[in-house]
TrEMBL record:
Domain of life of the organism encoding this protein: Bacteria
GO molecular function ontology, one term from the record: oxidoreductase activity
PANTHER family, per database record: QUINONE OXIDOREDUCTASE
Pfam families: ADH_N, ADH_zinc_N
Ranges where the Enoyl reductase (ER) domain occurs: 10-324
Name this polypeptide is given: Zinc-binding dehydrogenase
InterPro entries from the UniProt entry: ADH-like_C, ADH-like_N, ER, GroES-like_sf, NAD(P)-bd_dom_sf, Zinc-ADH_QOR/CCCR
């Protein structure tokens, strides 16, 4: 099969393109002929060496997310799944071979049915961006009727977090740094948008809400944003955060946060409870069927240009999902 892999850590140019042995499905697995692979920051971080032992057992085919068609099944899996359109997630979590290839063999639970009205590129966005946003919004209960602040609302995860929260009946306040991104947030369902480039944007949030503090925060930059979040979150509120790349070892004002009875929830798709994953999968299917999820695609690259897709992610200025088109399955 055609595939992309790396045998050493480094810049995008460590990615190689060529032929690798196609996998066979083991017990409980399906073999998916992939049509699209999603690229996420966690994929580029792994390529750079965020998991130093990743290459100990040999080369790695990157990427956790993708979509395609089941072509074969392993022992214990119903043959009815052959021919099913699916999306895959966690393809390269705790294992070497991900979705940047024509085929992936994966636990059938990690290959849910692709909603009928979704194409393969859309399915390749579900794993990390959509499921992360779902967990941040719903992990602490129904957000209906609450005020939910989404920082970086035009980002890959933030864009979906706005939709999940707004569709559930929350009043969403988003942050964005320019007029185009602000309009994107409003189109996704944000009732208010403030500019996080303002030094006192926490006060701007309070102005937008008429002085009422927010109940929950979905946060893209925990360390960098914490001081302003504390200016606008209520006592007993929840901060659900999925990144802190600008300040990877933030210092917490412990007593201030303690006397506000705050909950800090750190979210990563790989280690979400299985029940939360199943709920996210069900909610994605329902939202797509109802036409309540919109998607944005920044760029798409052919498999042989996977290095360019990684560079696009690392540039940090893309809005929407970055996709690698594989073309191994037909819609």
């Amino acid at each position: 099969m055609k595939a992309v892999w790396f045998e050493r850590f480094g810049e995008p140019d460590v990615l190689e393109f060529g032929e690798r042995p196609a996998p066979t499905p083991g017990k409980g697995e399906v073999l998916v002929r992939l049509a699209a692979s999603g690229v996420n920051p966690s994929d580029t971080k792994k390529r750079r060496g965020s998991f130093p032992n990743l290459l100990d057992n040999g080369y790695v085919i990157p990427h956790s997310d993708g979509a395609g068609v089941v072509e074969a099944v392993g022992e214990g899996v119903s043959s009815d799944r052959v021919g099913e359109r699916v999306w895959v997630y966690q393809a390269q979590h705790g294992r070497r071979f991900g979705s940047a290839a024509e085929y992936v063999a994966i636990d059938e639970a990690r290959a849910p049915a692709l909603p009928e009205n979704a194409d393969f590129r859309t399915g390749a966005c579900y794993g990390i961006p959509v499921m992360t946003a779902h967990r941040c919004v719903f992990a602490d209960g129904d957000p209906g009727g609450l005020k939910v602040l989404v920082t970086g609302g035009a980002g890959r995860v933030g864009y979906y977090a706005i939709q999940w929260a707004a569709n559930a009946g929350a009043e969403v306040i988003a942050t964005a740094s320019n007029a185009e991104d602000a309009e994107t947030c409003r189109a996704a369902g944000a009732a208010h948008v403030v500019n996080h480039r303002d030094d006192d944007w926490g006060s701007r949030v309070l102005e937008a809400t008429g002085g009422e503090r927010v109940d929950r925060v979905v946060d893209v930059e925990f360390g960098a944003n914490l001081s302003q979040v504390l200016e606008c979150i209520r006592t007993g509120g929840v901060i659900a955060t999925y990144s802190s790349s600008r300040d990877m070892q933030p210092t917490l004002p412990f007593y201030r946060m303690m006397f506000m009875d705050l909950t800090v929830r750190m979210v990563i798709v790989y280690d979400m409870p299985e029940a939360a994953k199943k709920q996210a999968i069900a909610d994605i299917a329902a939202a797509e069927a109802a036409g309540r999820l919109s998607h944005r695609f920044a760029e798409a690259y052919p498999l042989e240009r996977c290095a360019d897709a990684h560079a696009a992610i690392e540039a940090g200025n893309r809005r929407g999902c970055v996709i690698v088109d594989i073309g191994g399955a037909e819609d």
